[in-house]
Write a structure and sequence with these properties.
The protein has about 350 residues and is of the alpha/beta class. The chain contains 13 helices and 8 strands. It has helices spanning about 5-35, 40-60, 85-110, 115-135, 165-170, 185-205, 215-220, 235-240, 255-260, 285-295, 310-320, 325-330, 335-345; strands at about 150-155, 175-180, 205-210, 225, 245-250, 265-270, 300-305, 325.
């Protein structure tokens, strides 16, 4: 027997209000416990309350039309519904479920009150914007998870030896990731070197990162780019590089680390940990910042600046076993031996 139109609409509104609230709670918990983002959590909470206010005049009656036992859709299940690969898939599914539920609520609310539908439309568009921000944070665990020794290659710090040979020896000593860092080269020469650099890394199964220059990283087909606080934001670099390239961001304080995560960074640089002979700075973030990152940040974090064979144990004790170095490897008499010694400390459990 066909139900009255308003009864059908109320059942649909009841079901989709439940879907929307459940999805919002999943996303809000991710923002709260996964991102530690007060702003995103607050934005989601506002949407949840506005949703309740918008539907207040309908839900009291809608629940009276609920018929869970008679709902033919409760038995329509697929295997995929009971499997999620990781947190990213959980959150992505919740975001899509929320958008679908909001659209269904908007359409069926039109049969009762157009003003309610307009409020729901506004909520839907508000969440579209928020969904983009959340999507940037859903970094799938990648190759950086396996990185311990990250070596920056700069011709000025290769002790008059060919930079490409120094890079090759760093790889021989166990470097997992190399960054080409040449601030003063013109674009043409930098691209030529970047292509050599990428080829060397690829041949040896090592990650290739270009410092600062997104355009060079793209042209050389490097694995990714590393950005400083003064470079273009990671979220803009992501549009240029696509989802499969690596983006790292230098951070000096926890607020910058939080923003890097929201902007979609795959990893962060953490420092300067110590004073560095290769890059002078008027401040040191220190080991306290390392400990803050260990407590809060969930994406890979790489300690950087002034790290040597003598002080790396302090970094390890603070909780990080990923370090980026220049002089401690590239300026040593035997690059491979220096790299091997550092790598051994980073990978040997106490």
């Amino acid at each position: 027997m066909n139900q009255p139109a308003n009864s059908t609409a109320l059942r649909i509104i009841d079901a989709n209000a439940n879907r929307a609230r459940e999805a919002l709670r999943v996303i809000e918990d991710y923002a709260r416990f996964g991102l530690s983002s007060q702003k995103i959590s607050a934005d989601l909470k506002e949407i949840r309350h506005e949703l309740a206010n918008s539907l207040q005049s309908l839900l009291g009656e809608a629940i009276l039309h609920r018929d869970t036992e008679g709902d033919v859709g409760t038995t329509n299940k697929t295997a995929a519904e009971f499997a999620r690969q990781d947190i990213a898939h959980v959150v992505t599914a919740a975001c899509k479920r929320l958008e679908e539920a909001l659209r269904a609520l908007e359409e069926f609310a039109k049969t009762f009150d157009g003003s309610i539908a307009r409020r729901l439309e506004t909520l839907r568009y508000r969440f579209y914007v928020l969904d983009q921000t959340i999507a940037l944070t859903l970094v799938t665990p990648g190759r950086l998870e396996q990185v311990h020794l990250y070596v920056l290659i700069s011709e000025d710090h290769c002790c008059s030896r060919p930079w490409l040979e120094v890079a090759r020896q760093a790889i021989a000593g166990g470097a997992d990731c190399l960054q080409l860092r040449e601030k003063s080269l013109e674009g043409g020469e930098l691209l030529r070197r970047a292509r050599q650099f990428v080829e060397l890394c690829r041949e040896n199964g090592v990650i290739s990162i270009i410092n600062d220059r997104v355009d060079i990283a793209i042209a050389a087909d490097a694995d990714g780019v590393h950005l400083g606080q003064g470079d273009i934001p990671a979220r803009e670099a992501r549009k240029m590089l696509g989802k499969n390239k690596i983006i790292g961001v230098s951070t000096h304080q926890i607020e910058q680390a939080r923003q890097a995560i929201l902007d979609g960074a795959d990893y962060i640089g953490v420092g300067p940990v110590f004073r560095s002979s290769t890059k002078t700075r008027d401040f040191v973030a220190g080991l306290d910042y390392v400990r803050q990152v260990v407590q809060e940040v969930t994406i890979p974090a790489v300690a950087i600046a002034g790290i040597t064979q003598e002080n790396v144990d302090q970094v390890i004790a603070a909780g990080l076993r990923r370090v980026a170095v220049t002089a401690a490897v590239t300026e040593q008499a035997d690059v491979a031996v220096a790299a091997r010694a550092l790598k051994a400390k980073l990978t040997t459990l106490p």
